[in-house]
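Q: What structure does this chain adopt?
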Amino acid sequence: MAGKSGKKFIASRGIPSSESLYFPSYNSTEVRRFQDNNETQTRNLWSLEEVINFIFPKKYQEKYHEIAMNFLKLLSKKIHLNGTDISSFVSENNISKATFYNRVLPRLRRVGLIKVERETLVPVEGKRKYRPMRISLSKTFGNYLMKIGDSWLAIVDDARSKQ
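A:
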């Protein structure tokens, strides 16, 4: 699409859902208290279900939320999953392959909750080349949000110190 100046731009339709997180109001009943009245962090930690709610909000994406919860619980127990483990998970839990492989898994990877590694195996005579998948938990999501949070705290502290 071209504007009056002739420069091309993308028409704004908001943030694509595949690139967004769900942030209910900080004082919502959906979010357990995380700071006191002086804005000091409390010591409690959110559970896996509470963290997943930011990725797949239960009130809007209940099925994806449930699938992600069960998958991450399994991954937390085993630390690494291979293609056979994943296939078993999908069939044992009666999950649509399309839903899991096209919606849930890519989203978990994109936000940095999981790491997907592939190994290329050279074909043996008459067999095709294949790339087995290995999935593990990743700290990227936490590191990303901590960097954002730490940067914001530094900005607030800097602004308050100038007064």
